[in-house]
Amino acid sequence: MLTNDLISETYTAITVNKARTFLTILGIVIGIGSVITMTAVGRGAQNDIEERIQGIGANLLMIRAGGGGRGGFGPTNTGGNQDSLTTEDVDMLRQDSQYLSYVAPQASGRYQVIAGGNNVNTTVLGTTSDYASVYNSSVERGSFLTLADDKKLSRVVVLGSQAALDLFGDGTTLESDPVGDSVRINGVTFTVIGLLAQKGDNDDTIYAPLGTVQQYLIGEKTVSSIDVSVTNSQNMTVAEEELNTMLLEAHGITDETEADFRIRNQADIIETASSVTGALTALLAAIASISLLVGGIGIMNMMLTSVTERTREIGLRKALGATVGDIRRQFLLEAVTLTFLGGLLGVLSGIGIAWFLDSNIGLSTSVSQSSVVLAFSVSALIGVIFGLYPAWRASKFDPMEALRYE
């Protein structure tokens, strides 16, 4: 059978009953569309998480009190001291490390904060002037904390954008300029000296000098974390090793597995977040792909019905010289064409849904070229797998028996 004849016969067989054809490929359309949408949502979430993490600050290393040593989000040493980091550690890192641009110690807690008639419970973070540089924080009004504020134990605060709205507005609109006004934190009066620009992360946080928070709120000189900015990205690994060695020696620890601190970097966080979103995306895609199996069974059912309906046609073709291979190729091509058409409509619907979610709902999505190619490949593979048996059955008809079929 000539290729042109094969294509023509396939087109005729598919279009002779358009409604049945559409209903047959609907399972493939839904399956492929669901997989494309799920992978787009998962990839979009992964990209969004990576952008947020990278936007936190450049060349960032985070040192947290408590056991664990290096290695990101792995299991921690439950025996670690949660008060293991001190201001002496901060001074040591700032003075002795050759790879650090900024060092921002932190000590925080949640407190009742009162301003006028507004009363909110939020995080108060004690830190130093380096915090703004480490986390790329921009001051919208007033100024950020200074080294002098920390040394003098000044009772001053800088408000995150949402904290300012909650304390000096209605939660969505700022009713007055908070700079120069006072707030009471745990009964202690502080003066607002600045307002940070909106960033998305920690917008509801209130920032105060580290020494002031330790003196008036926490009552001890420990810090919960020390976040540092490395001079350049090429020094990240060597800087992490240096910090680990310095802190182990300062704390008198010889066995790294017994470390009472842990160091994390952006790569660790991104890798962990990517693995979580990747696993979730794979799970959702696997669930959505169940409809592909149902669609494939529907394709096989239609092809078997078509074989039965066209028994006399098959017998006539064989009587006129069509070979077993010709009949097999014809029905196999019909099955592959159906699934490929379903895959095309599924890809278009998946891209359309992903675009709608991104444009109208604000859910970040990203359709990758690889997912589209994979969708078409899977569609064709389903056509081959579920079209083989009907094609084989059609090719086995005896022409004389087929011509007598009513």
Describe the structure.
This protein has 406 residues and is of the alpha+beta class. The protein folds into two domains: 3-51 and 275-403, no CATH class; 85-250, no CATH class. It has helices at residues 3-15, 18-56, 87-96, 131-134, 147-151, 161-168, 210-218, 236-250, 266-288, 290-309, 311-319, 324-361, 369-395, 399-403; strands spanning 60-65, 69-70, 85-86, 100-115, 118-127, 139-142, 156-159, 182-185, 188-196, 206-209, 222-223, 225-230, 261-265. The strands form two sheets. The chain has a six-stranded mixed beta barrel with strand order 4-5-10-7-9-8. Strands 3-11 form a two-stranded antiparallel ribbon. Strand 4 and strand 5 form a beta hairpin. Helix 2 (18-56) runs antiparallel to helix 9 (266-288), helix 10 (290-309) packs antiparallel against helix 12 and helix 10 (290-309) packs parallel to helix 13 (369-395). The longest helix is centred in the N-terminal third of the chain and has 39 residues, at 18-56. It starts with a helix and ends with a helix.
Tell me the number of structural domains: 2
Percent of residues in helices comes to 55-70%
The topology string of helices and strands comes to HHEEEHEEHEHEHEEEHEEHEHHHHHH
Structural class: alpha+beta
Low-confidence stretches: 72-80
Shape: elongated
Oligomer state equals: single chain
Mean pLDDT: 86
Biggest beta-sheet profile: 6 strands, mixed, barrel
Strand order of the largest sheet: 4-5-10-7-9-8
Gyration radius from CA atoms, angstroms: 33 Å
